């Protein structure tokens, strides 16, 4: 079971040594985060590890006993490797259940009848020494001041892992053993430059392809960005029409995690502009204000906590208002055909927030694995959906308008299967599916650090 500690780098030395009390942050929040209001909680089984000497280092089922509610006490965390959710035994998901660094126990993106087994371990507090080294090339250096060098990797000994927090200029270490740890942060010289120029100039070495813009394809790509104090991902760099009526080459981002289930258009129409989701994204979400959202037509609503998860004023200032491609298509077309349809119609006004397009999803599959001549209706296999970094968990809307009047937008169908299904369908607009906000960054936004890896996302200003 992982132990976690965050090390703030505030002293400049060749070798930094800290005496740390592991897991001294509080697990004060014992609420389960529910991303699906229809979840049947009778399907939730909770287990707590027995407090015996024999079970301290064992994860056998015999070392856990079922309990009626979440365990009390700061020392309990979810065993992420053991906890699991599934509809069928062949479709198990382990990445939705965890205890975050704020001490909150999280279960996310649940399906209504999904069975979830949550295992809690008791974490022992102990002392350890953590040594942090800084290197530039092969040379050990004094720890650089923030922004003077770019961290490109963090490695640790004794089976520990770590990541670098660029914003706070600190190292977060996951320690597996009760032993001293040495971590090495490797730095490189990096010159801040416009983000769009950096990506297009170095697209080949960064893993982008030039296909109706510069975009990422494949299942594993390093396209993470720290934006709005959370992880977003780069869809690509595309020409977009801005409010100044000129076309600019802009970086398009998508939020790494989806918002709760929302209706595309509560009135069950295939109209994006002025529809319920478009309005929510460009009002409450953009302005970081709570609002009443439509989950399923006009009959089911809920309060969206956009004051917590919405865009900060600083993030909003980095976004360009553009006209979004929303041309109509259907789910049985190839990505190329859908793209050609999308660009025939744009929103009449300029908006800062939208969604990914269906062609964004289609072009994110690896061409060498899934032929571009494949209908997106037939993406439900490992060669297509399994080679697509945009494939998320659950059903998800796109901004692309469907042909049929009550279908709303095209959406990515998952049926709870990761990598097994990823078909684009046109469906009734009032259904509450996941939505990942998408934005275009202004052309004057610079990249100042990072590598694009999840542990070292790009840092922009």
Can I get a quick summary?
This protein has 461 residues and is mainly beta. It is 10% helix and 37% strand. Strands 18, 19, 20, 21, 22, 23, 27, 32, 33 and 34 form a ten-stranded mixed beta sheet that branches. Strands 4, 5, 6, 7, 8 and 11 form a six-stranded mixed beta sheet that branches. Strands 2, 12, 13, 14 and 17 form a five-stranded mixed beta sheet that branches.
Explain this structure.
- Strands 18, 19, 20, 21, 22, 23, 27, 32, 33 and 34 form a ten-stranded mixed sheet that branches. Strands 4, 5, 6, 7, 8 and 11 form a six-stranded mixed sheet that branches. Strands 2, 12, 13, 14 and 17 form a five-stranded mixed sheet that branches.
- The protein is mainly β.
- The protein folds into three domains: 84 residues, no CATH class; 94 residues, no CATH class; 189 residues, no CATH class.
- It is globular and about 65 Å long.
- Helix content is 10%, strand content 37%.
- A hairpin with a 7-residue loop joins strand 28 and strand 29.
């Amino acid at each position: 079971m992982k132990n976690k500690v965050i090390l703030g780098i505030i002293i400049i030395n060749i070798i930094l040594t800290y005496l740390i009390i592991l897991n001294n942050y509080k697990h004060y929040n014992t609420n389960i985060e529910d991303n699906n209001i229809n979840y049947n909680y009778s399907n939730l089984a909770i287990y707590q590890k027995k407090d015996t000497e024999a079970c301290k280092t064992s994860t056998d089922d015999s070392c856990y006993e079922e309990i009626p509610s979440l365990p009390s006490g700061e020392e309990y965390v979810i065993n992420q490797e053991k906890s699991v959710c599934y509809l069928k035994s062949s479709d198990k998901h382990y990445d939705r259940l965890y205890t975050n660094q704020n001490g909150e126990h999280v279960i996310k993106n649940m399906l209504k009848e999904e069975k979830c087994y949550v295992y809690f371990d008791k974490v022992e507090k102990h002392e350890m020494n953590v040594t942090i080294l800084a290197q530039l090339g092969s040379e050990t250096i004094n720890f650089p001041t923030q922004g003077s060098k770019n961290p490109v990797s963090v490695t640790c000994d004794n089976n520990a892992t770590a990541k670098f927090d660029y914003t706070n200029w600190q190292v977060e270490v996951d320690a597996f053993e009760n032993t001293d740890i040495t971590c090495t942060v490797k730095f490189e010289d990096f010159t801040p430059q416009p983000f769009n120029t950096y990506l297009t100039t170095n697209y080949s070495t960064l893993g982008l392809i030039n296909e109706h813009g510069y975009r990422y394809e494949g299942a594993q790509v390093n396209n993470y960005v720290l934006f709005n104090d959370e992880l977003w991902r780069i869809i690509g760099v595309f020409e977009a029409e801005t409010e100044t009526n000129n076309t600019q080459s802009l970086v398009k981002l998508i939020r790494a995690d989806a918002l709760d289930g929302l209706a595309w258009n509560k009135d069950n129409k295939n109209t994006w502009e002025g529809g319920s989701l478009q309005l929510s994204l460009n009002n409450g979400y953009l302005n970081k204000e709570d609002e009443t959202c439509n989950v399923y037509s006009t009959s089911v609503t809920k309060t969206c906590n956009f004051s917590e998860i919405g865009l900060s004023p600083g993030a909003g200032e980095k976004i360009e208002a553009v006209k979004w491609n929303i041309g109509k298509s259907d789910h049985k077309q190839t990505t190329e055909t859908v793209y050609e349809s999308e660009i025939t119609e744009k929103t009449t006004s300029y908006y800062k927030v939208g969604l990914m397009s269906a062609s964004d999803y289609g072009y994110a599959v690896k061409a060498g694995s899934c032929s571009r001549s494949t209908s997106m209706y037939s993406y439900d296999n490992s060669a297509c959906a399994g080679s697509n970094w945009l494939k998320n968990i659950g059903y998800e809307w796109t901004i692309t308008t469907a042909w049929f009047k009550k279908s709303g937008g095209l959406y990515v169908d998952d049926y709870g299967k990761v990598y097994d299904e990823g078909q684009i369908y046109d469906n009734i607009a009032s259904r509450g599916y996941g939505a990942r906000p998408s934005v275009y960054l202004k052309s004057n936004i610079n990249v100042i650090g990072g590598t694009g890896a999840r542990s070292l996302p790009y840092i922009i200003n």
